[in-house]
Specification:
The complex is a heterodimer of chains A (about 775) and B (about 260).
Chain A: H1 2-12, H2 14-52, E1 57-62, H3 67-76, E2 81-92, E3 97-99, E4 103-104, E5 111-115, E6 138-142, H4 143-148, E7 156-161, E8 164-174, E9 186-191, H5 193-201, E10 206-215, H6 221-230, E11 239-241, H7 242-296, H8 300-333, H9 335-340, H10 349-353, H11 356-378, H12 381-385, H13 410-421, H14 423-450, E12 466-471, H15 476-489, E13 493-507, E14 513-521, E15 530-533, E16 541-545, H16 546-549, E17 561-566, E18 569-579, E19 588-591, E20 602-611, H17 617-627, E21 631-635, H18 636-680, H19 682-691, H20 695-733, H21 747-769, H22 778-783
Parallel strand pairs in A: 5-9, 6-8, 14-19, 16-18
Antiparallel strand pairs in A: 1-10, 1-11, 2-5, 2-10, 3-4, 3-7, 6-9, 7-8, 12-20, 12-21, 13-14, 13-17, 13-20, 15-18, 16-19, 17-18
Chain B: E1 3-17, E2 20-33, E3 37-41, H1 48-55, E4 63-68, E5 71-72, H2 78-88, E6 89-93, H3 104-113, H4 120-133, H5 149-161, E7 167-171, H6 179-194, E8 198-202, H7 206-209, E9 214-219, E10 222-228, H8 239-252
Parallel strand pairs in B: 3-8, 3-9, 6-7, 7-8
Antiparallel strand pairs in B: 1-2, 1-4, 4-5, 9-10
The chains are: A alpha+beta (about 775), B alpha/beta (about 260).
Chain lengths: ~775, ~260
């Protein structure tokens, strides 16, 4: 009997039931996909780590090198250090690597080096997470380059450097735990030992050393780093800790997972709002039915069973379908992870963790139903049958009388006042429109921000037209001097500023010495936006990056003193400002030229340039690139693109996906909402029709109401995604070194294009789904 | 006298399922003259209300012809019929059917404000007058939850009259009211009729029918008898006597 009632109920409310079902399923799909991504990320990162065995401390060094000192140090620190291995990197200029149709890797911001597989740890893996074993004449290409240059297995890569020419066949892709991420600015190509020896012999590139330590289980990383520096061992490059590798690797996937979790969270809200909407819309009818059942003598328990079982069956079925579908849908989101972290995301954790989504959704729905049914418990059969008598005698102040309308036609006014009068019903729709606008605008804002030249602010760079990087070569100092002279005499150059970055020792909060990268130069030419304070202007002033200022960095505020050791002399500097920087692990500083150079540890020279108005920047860039072979010439946008390109591309996909999801939700919810509203208002519509209102008159009322709700939702949604979104993104980015992200808001997109698209879609949906024509005879509805 | 409403061979069938059809109206011919006060009586299921709704164009007839003010309305589109309802017809229902979120006076004014060139001031004045006429002017700004059934039905009558209809249709307008309220409503309707508005009522209450001018008796989808009683004048006529005559006539016809 009860089963029959449930079956009939499904039959009777086909569309509403189907819509609620679809939303529960969608919420489960996305919720399960997000948990799937996170569990995959956790599991596959640890698997990748287990296979790659990355270093806990990695110290870069270029120049004079002596392994015996390091061996002795390792022995002395055997309490902390388990293994030590030095990887010798053969640096190759991108212009010397040829592939495809006369293409080279010139212009990449990545430092390229050729290496052979390590013996003890820090293994570079293939796509099956197996240690790479490269045969003679073959090489493994980093996944980053495979994607950027669309390189295929079997393609030829030719190294043509300093008169030495050798062809390699790409036999594998290299999954490199330490240098996978686009944010890590070095990439390693793996070759066979004999090819490598030949290249070294022919002096095809500069040598750099990656001195790596693997610590014992309870080894202290900080102690080893300090002792290493105190021992005066080779250390003129940056030091990178194990956590940073993890952070860089997981960052883009974690960001994607976070955005998907956000979207699925919004969908869960939408689904529950939808169920609430169904209840609100059908409660009058349901109350009558409950009244009939009570009058028939069916027990309260059985009545509850009918209602609860209906939604139990629905949410359980939607949960199972959503859970299963999530394993297909998740493939849309985890492409990057499959490529960079693990090709076979086969862990079992995801099957368990993904169950959270359907279980949570199921519980939410059942709890909600129980809440509604508690209300039903309290009323008698008669009250349930005559729900209108509950309304009788309630004194409410009458607002929005028809005569106070001066602006709108009567039907538009009726639509608008209906929103006000039944705000409880419409507010669900407002929430949904806010959520959808948020889903559209937030990824768009993030995408636009990362894609804009303004983003350089978060990379510690002042805004300029182009940037020339000079990196370690024998002629670097001469090139730098020549470049400055050239710029001084070039009428096409409006202004320029040169900066030199060296590695310095700085006294940390514990009183020991850390290495940090300090840039010196004139920071007033291309001003950078500061979080606090300002750029160094006078002698003995230093500004530090947000990550350096934080407690796990130097733990300094504006006004604090910092002791820097330059050329063996300790100098005290006052912190004059804190800026945001996500490059170099977020830990950088800028000081006045009075700091002096650490000649042995100059890492790079950078010149920022603005051209005179009217000058073709492209031509100028080409000119400098040709004049200075060892230089990398980029415009700022290109620089951000290459460093963050992968993430920007994925964000682009998410932004488009967000728009698509939002539009689908908007269409589904609007039509569902109208369907339910119209069925709830059936008798009121019939009354208006009996008075002589045309279907168009009535349609205008519902269109005006729904569109006004949409406009309100859009305004609140845009404001929320601007302010709340900034806070959320800043919180997420603060671990990388950018604590206060300000969105680049492209007004015509956020305030015009997206709202118009939403309004157009909702408008069309309303006109298609707002069917107020009474299909049966009017009197049937009026008398029912 | 001019005929305001005329039906010829009016049929209404309703599908109840496969091969199961209910023939509610069977070739009904009816003529109502302008200014008449007509009531339709008959047992439950005889087709009284169906005649009212199909004759007024509110429902779609199955076959036959309906002329309103000489104009054939049976083939008209829904939107054209709506316009006629708005400008020339008024309806009063047993369930009153006021709009929930409007005050009494706004419910009354609403049909008049729908037309584009409505003069708001004039509409307001007229609504106030109608509320005065029906004795509920003090409740004008009340929500519909703050009025009794009788008061709401008066507001329903005011709404039906706001656009000066040529004919007023009533489907058991006093059916849900106590006898005092019912009697007051009938007096109001009689007053309206006196001023020239044609009224067609469906009722099963002899007391109501006795106050009307002509009574039609329906059985099984047909008008089987008709009784002309003449206009009721409370000063001249004895209502008890009219009721007795009517009861006798009804019994003769098997009611």
């Amino acid at each position: 009997m009860i089963f029959k009632i449930i079956k009939n109920d499904f039959k009777r409310k086909k569309i509403v039931t189907a819509a609620v079902f679809v939303f529960i399923t969608m919420a489960v799909i996305l919720g399960a996909s997000a948990t799937n991504i996170i569990s995959n990320l956790i599991q596959s990162m640890s698997e990748l780590k287990a296979h790659a065995v990355p270093a806990d401390i990695a110290q870069m060094h270029a120049g004079k090198f002596d392994q015996s000192g390091i061996d002795k140090f390792t022995q002395d620190q055997s309490e902390h250090i388990a293994l030590q291995e030095t990887m010798v990197l053969l640096s190759i200029d991108g212009r010397d690597i040829h592939f495809g149709n006369n293409q080279t890797m010139v212009g990449t911001v990545q430092d390229i080096s050729f290496v052979v597989q390590n013996r003890k740890f820090d293994f570079i893996l293939d796509l099956n997470n197996e240690k790479l074993d490269i045969r003679k004449g073959e090489l493994a290409v980093p996944i980053y380059f495979m994607e950027v240059y669309n390189l295929k297995l079997g393609d030829t890569i030719t190294l043509d450097s300093k008169g030495y020419r050798k062809e390699f066949i790409i036999s594998e892709y290299a999954r490199d735990y330490e240098m996978n991420a686009p944010l890590t600015s070095s990439k390693r190509f793996v070759v066979n030992q004999s090819d490598y020896d030949e290249m070294i012999e022919k002096q095809t590139g500069e040598l750099e050393y990656l001195i790596e330590f693997r610590l014992k289980e309870n080894g202290d990383s900080q102690v080893v780093q300090t002792a290493y520096i105190d021992a005066g061992l080779p250390a003129n490059g940056p030091t990178v800790g194990g956590e940073l590798f993890l952070l860089f690797n997981a960052l883009s996937d974690a960001a994607i997972a976070m955005i998907i979790i956000l979207i699925s969270f919004l969908l869960v809200i939408i689904a529950s709002l939808c169920i609430q909407l169904t209840f609100l819309a059908t409660i009058d009818e349901d109350l009558k039915e409950i009244g009939v059942m009570k009058a028939m003598g069916i027990s309260r328990k059985d009545i509850k069973k009918v209602y609860l079982n209906k939604y139990r069956i629905m949410s359980a079925a939607a949960g199972i379908i959503g859970y299963l579908l999530s394993f297909i849908v998740v493939n849309l989101f985890n492409g990057n992870m499959r490529l960079y972290i693990s090709s076979e995301l086969s862990g079992n954790l995801k099957y368990v963790l993904s169950l959270i989504a359907p279980v949570v959704v199921y519980l939410m729905i059942v709890l909600y139903c129980q809440k509604v049914l508690r209300k039903v418990d309290k009323i008698s059969a008669v009250e349930a049958l005559r729900s209108d008598i509950m309304e009788r005698g309630k004194k409410r102040k009458y607002s929005f009388p028809l005569l106070s309308n001066r602006l709108f036609t009567i039907n538009i006014y009726m639509g608008l006042r209906d929103v006000w009068k039944r705000f409880k019903l419409y507010r669900l729709l407002i929430f949904i429109f806010i959520a959808c606008t948020f889903i559209v605008i937030l990824p768009l804002n993030i995408y636009n921000t990362m894609n804009s030249p303004e983003f350089s602010t978060y990379m510690g760079i002042g805004k300029c037209d182009m940037r020339i990087d000079l990196r370690k070569t024998d002629t670097i100092t001469a090139d730098f001097a020549r470049l400055q002279e050239d710029l001084e005499n070039d009428p096409d150059i409006e202004k320029y500023a040169a900066y030199i970055t060296c590695s310095y020792q700085v006294k940390n909060a514990e009183g020991s010495w850390d290495y940090i990268l300090i840039e010196t130069g004139d920071f007033s030419v291309f001003p950078l936006e500061y979080l606090e304070g300002r750029a160094p202007e006078r002698a003995r002033e230093i500004s530090i990056s947000f990550a350096n200022a934080s407690t796990d960095g130097l733990n300094k505020k504006v006004g604090d003193d910092v002791v820097v050791r330059a050329s063996g002399i300790d100098k005290t500097f006052k912190v004059c400002g804190i800026y945001q920087d996500i490059t170099n692990g977020g830990k950088t500083a800028k000081a006045d030229a009075s700091l002096g150079l650490n000649e042995e540890s100059v890492l790079w020279y950078i010149v920022n340039i603005n051209t005179t108005p009217g000058v073709d920047i492209r031509n100028k860039m080409e000119y400098f690139q040709n004049a200075y072979h060892s230089a990398q010439v980029n415009d700022i946008k290109e620089y951000t693109q290459q460093t963050l390109g992968n993430m920007i591309d994925q964000l682009g996909v998410i932004a488009i996906g967000g728009i698509a999801i939002a539009l689908i939700i908007v269409v589904l919810i609007t039509s569902l909402f109208l369907k339910m509203l119209l069925s709830k208002d059936g008798s009121q519509i019939a009354i208006m029709r009996s008075m002589g209102l045309t279907t168009q008159n009535i349609k205008n009322q519902y269109t005006a109401g729904t569109l006004s709700v949409l406009v309100l939702g859009i305004i609140l949604g845009v404001v929320a995604s601007d302010f709340l979104g900034e806070i959320m993104v800043s919180a997420a980015m603060s671990s990388m070194g950018a604590a206060r992200i300000q969105f680049v808001n492209i007004a015509w997109q956020t305030w015009l294009l997206c709202p118009l698209a939403l309004i157009a879609v909702v408008g069309i949906t309303i006109s298609l789904s707002c069917k107020v024509a009474v299909e049966e005879d009017l009197s049937v509805v009026l008398r029912s | 006298m001019n005929t305001i409403l005329e039906t010829r061979s009016l049929n209404k069938k309703v599908e109840l399922g496969k091969n199961n059809e209910l023939h509610i109206l069977k070739d009904v011919d009816l003529m109502i003259e302008k200014g008449e006060f007509v009531s339709v009586m008959g047992p439950s299921g005889s087709g009284k209300s169906t005649l009212l709704y199909n004759g007024s164009g509110m429902d779609r007839m199955t076959s036959g012809s309906v002329k309103f003010k000489g104009l054939e309305i049976s083939g008209m589109k829904e939107e054209e019929l709506a316009k006629i309802r708005l400008s020339s017809m008024g309806f009063i229902f047993q369930d009153i059917n006021l709009l929930k979120n409007l005050s009494l006076i706004d419910n009354v004014m609403f049909p008049a404000l729908v037309s584009k060139d409505a003069d708001k001031k004039a509409v307001h004045q007229k609504a106030k007058k109608l509320l005065e006429m029906t004795g509920i002017e003090k409740l004008a700004d009340n929500n519909i939850t703050q009025a009794s059934g009788g008061q709401l039905q008066r507001a329903g009558i005011c709404r039906a009259l706001i656009n000066d209809p040529d004919i007023l249709f009533g489907d058991e307008p006093t059916g849900a009211l106590d006898s005092k309220s019912a009697s007051e409503i009938l007096s109001i309707l009689a007053e309206i009729n006196k001023k020239g508005t044609t009224i067609m009522l469906v009722t099963h209450d002899v007391k109501v029918a006795a106050k009307t001018e002509r009574i039609l008796f329906m059985v099984d989808g047909n008008i089987v008898a008709e009784k002309k009683m003449g206009k009721f004048d409370s000063l001249r006529d004895d209502i008890m006597e009219r009721e007795e005559i009517l009861i006798k006539w009804l019994m003769e016809n098997g009611f």
